[in-house]
Amino acid sequence: LISSATKSLRMETEILEKKLQDAQMKLAEKDGDKEKEIQSLKRFISELEFQLTMEKSNNESFLDKLRKEIKHKSDELEKLTQEKTQLIHSLSQVQEENSLLQDTVRRECEERFELTAALGRAREQVLELRRLSGTLP
């Protein structure tokens, strides 16, 4: 009876040991799979971090270019604004000078008209005097 019980316990122990080994193998296999998955995720994270670093670098480079372009455009706008102001000032001076010249021309034309009229009267007077002096002895 003891021998049979011992044999039965040994068989049960062997079965349990086999189940334990199977469970340990499955656990080791799962641990291996998890370790592979962890390594894969670490590589994926590293790739994403590298991409993020590259994107940041590209964005900073792009922003630097945009800042330089904005600075250039701002300088150009300031220069053009100054040129515009100078041109407006020059235009104002030219308009003033033009107005002065037009006024001068108008006055000279009036003087010429008056002189022409006076010359016409003087001719008439000379002709009248000649005519009168021709009839007088």
Automatic annotation (TrEMBL):
Transmembrane segments: none annotated. The keyword Coiled coil applies. The keyword Coiled coil applies. Residues 63-97 form a coiled coil. InterPro entries: LEKR1. It comes from the Eukaryota. This is LEKR1 protein. It comes from Thryothorus ludovicianus (Carolina wren). The gene is Lekr1.
